[in-house]
Design brief:
Elements (H helix, E strand, L loop, with lengths): L3 E6 L3 H12 L4 E7 L2 H11 L3 E4 L8 H11 L5 E5 L4 H10 L3 E4 L4 H12 L4 E2 L1 H13 L10 H11 L4 H8 L3 H15 L4 H10 L5 H6 L2
Parallel strand pairs: 1-2, 1-3, 3-4, 4-5, 5-6
Helix pairs in contact: 2-3, 4-6, 7-9, 7-10, 8-9
């Protein structure tokens, strides 16, 4: 197989450095660019055309879900592997819905990341063992997540609204009109049965959309 070029997307430089070293120790792997934000990931994808994008879901501003969506809108054949701390089945399924081809948790052994990256580069799908078990357990138990009723774009807006970002700021970040963001906001509240914005925040935390890091990272 020819060389696999990689765009690595994570908002922590030290983390990126560690994973870049891990990946480039593998024969035939080369990291051609690194990005900290969804916007930077989209820009670098256009200029570097990597074989695979390896990205975290938790980024400053718009998340990895938004990066997946934008990259796939530009290139329907883009190969994207999510590499994240989010361990819930619902997040993994939403990442695939947005256009990802693989999902590996950061708690997985390095060998799983390498195997998944190779599979995605070859046009296949891949999930880490822990996520495959989560998905199977959820389906067998018939468990329902609040995220099941939301599209990836709605989850993105839920995360930004619940983190305290203003409507105008969200609109600018996602290239939408404030009115469109407001419509999404009301629609999300209706789908989740949120009585008010405080309840919406509570639901977002319960679904794992928000983490303590979110409140530190958002402007």
């Amino acid at each position: 197989m020819s060389e696999i070029t990689i765009l690595l997307v994570d908002d922590h430089p030290v983390v990126r450095e560690g994973y870049r070293r891990l990946l480039e120790r593998q024969d035939g792997f080369r990291v051609v660019a690194e990005a900290e934000t969804a916007a930077e990931a989209y820009r670098l994808y256009r200029t570097t055309n990597p074989s695979v994008v390896v990205l975290d879901l938790t980024l400053r501003g718009p998340s990895g879900l938004e990066a997946i969506r934008n990259i796939r809108l530009r290139d329907g054949q883009a190969r994207i592997l999510v590499f994240t701390m989010h361990q819930g089945a619902a997040f993994a399924l939403k990442a695939f819905e947005a256009g990802a081809a693989g999902y590996v948790t950061k708690s997985s052994p390095p060998t799983e990341l390498i195997a998944a990256l190779t599979a995605v580069a070859r046009g296949r799908q891949a999930v880490s063992i822990d996520i495959a078990q989560e998905i199977a357990a959820d389906r067998l138990a018939g468990r329902h997540s609040p995220l099941d009723d939301l599209a990836p774009r709605e989850i993105e807006i839920l995360r930004l609204v619940a983190s305290g970002m203003a409507t105008e700021t969200i609109a600018a970040a996602l290239h939408l009109s404030p009115k469109t963001v407001q419509n999404y906001h009301y629609g999300i509240k209706a789908k989740l049965g949120a009585r008010n914005d405080a309840h919406l925040v509570w639901l977002a935390i319960g679904a794992g959309v928000l983490t303590p890091q979110t409140f530190h990272d958002e402007p």
